[in-house]
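Pasting as-is:
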Amino acid sequence: MQTVAFIGLGNMGGPMAANLIKAGFQVRVFDLVESLVSGLEALGAYAASSVEEAAKNADVVVTMLPAGCHVANLYIGDQSSQPQGEGSQTTGANGLLAKLPAGTLVIDSSTIDAETSRAVHQEAKSRSIQCLDAPVSGGVAAATAGTLSFMCGGSKEAFASARDVLNAMGANIFHAGPDGAGQVAKMCNNMLLAIHMIGSSEALKLGEKNGVDANTLSEIMLASSGKNWSLEKYNPYPGVMENSPASNDYKPGFMVDLMTKDLGLAMDNASSTGSATPLGKLAHELYQEKQSSGDGQRDFSSIIELIESKAKNG
């Protein structure tokens, strides 16, 4: 069985690593938070004291990190400290990719900008390392259940090599296209998610103002053309779905902070590619407003609270 190094054991990474252990992989884990490492150690993982120890002689390295800067620093390293000059090997000389043997498979499941992802791919290729950008969708519940959707960018060969590892963590595995395509797919998906979460919140609140029960209205829309994932799997109205964050004081879940970050990536990309995203722009502004009110740690479905406050404030 393959040895997998898993780096980044937060709300998503921890359950993902646990499912690899359950599937029989030899898993080495590392995170800056020691309690997260010890929790996986109790399940059978090897607790590494450093990234390098986790990745040493691993067949596969999986990362789940907060942002593009963390991914670039890990894999490529701090280029500002490297010697300059004609013919010098300045790119990636102190990053993790420089320490991995040729043939290693790297899977980055962080949600980051496509440009940084492509830079990691380029560095990996220069060292004969296989690489996939493979961000996920489904949230903590799907990470725990092993039913995540993976959106993968990279070569067909790397995608094929990653199949067994990805299948241990997800139920829907997609090859979106070449380097960075997974990040683009995730960016588009989350922009749409934000839009239909806001739309669902508006519709439910409008119905409520007119005396229609939220449970009843949800059932009607789920059987009609307004059906969407937010209504069906993640209803934002408290009490409609027993296990949704909305029925647990909007404990995340998927935080407002993270949705705001993802929408920011989409808006930056739209600007650089000359794409028109008027609803995406409005969604970003609304989530920024929600974040600035001090609710960044609440679940993103709590946007319905902002809709309600706007109604009260006129």
